[in-house]
Design goal:
9 strands; globular; 2 domains; Alpha-Beta Plaits; alpha+beta; single chain; four-stranded mixed sheet; VC0802-like
């Protein structure tokens, strides 16, 4: 999985088709799209760069807002680990070089189907990152997306995560 896509409940099938069509247009003719057993959540494995995909979809959305009807949020994933604190910690450590010395960061943990402590995860990750924390306006977001026994990890700018609703709303302002 290198993308997590959210949608409205019971629209998973339509969302999967929408994502498949978009990725085909971008050059991936055979992405693996899995409707998870969590309502409104799909995982996607594409051969394309997931951050580039979210930026291209955002451009597409700005040109033709009606072209995306089912996707709510598209989140790029850079690394997948088991949902264990040590695995998550080492996964983030392997990506932490993406946070430059002068950049601030925030850790966001989204738990679905996991009873691990968010506070413990955040503490373990923060112990290994020496940069300043900025909860409101971070340069980078350390994103931990837990889906039962698998966890997707990314270090992104906020613009790398696509919220379809926010993007459409910003167009009308």
């Amino acid at each position: 999985m290198n993308l997590i896509v959210t949608c409205f409940r019971h629209n998973e099938s339509e969302t999967g088709n929408e994502v498949r069509d978009i990725l085909k247009e971008f050059g991936d003719s055979s992405p693996e799209i899995l409707v998870t057993n969590m309502s409104g959540i799909l995982t996607v494995d594409t051969k394309l760069d997931p951050v580039m995909v979210t930026h291209k979809i955002k451009e597409m959305l700005l040109d033709e807002p009606w072209s995306i009807r089912y996707c709510k949020k598209i989140i790029p994933i850079q690394k997948v680990t088991e949902s264990e604190i040590g695995e998550i910690e080492s996964g983030v450590a392997g990506l932490s070089h993406q946070i430059l010395d002068n950049e601030t960061y925030r850790i966001s943990v989204n738990k679905r189907g996991s009873n691990l402590s968010s506070k413990e995860i955040i503490t373990k990750i923060a112990d290994n990152i020496k940069n300043k924390v900025s909860l409101e306006f971070p340069d980078k977001i350390v994103l931990v997306e837990m889906l039962y026994n698998k966890t997707g990890i990314s270090i992104l700018k906020s613009a790398d995560i696509l919220s379809v609703e926010k993007t459409k709303r910003s167009m009308s302002e």
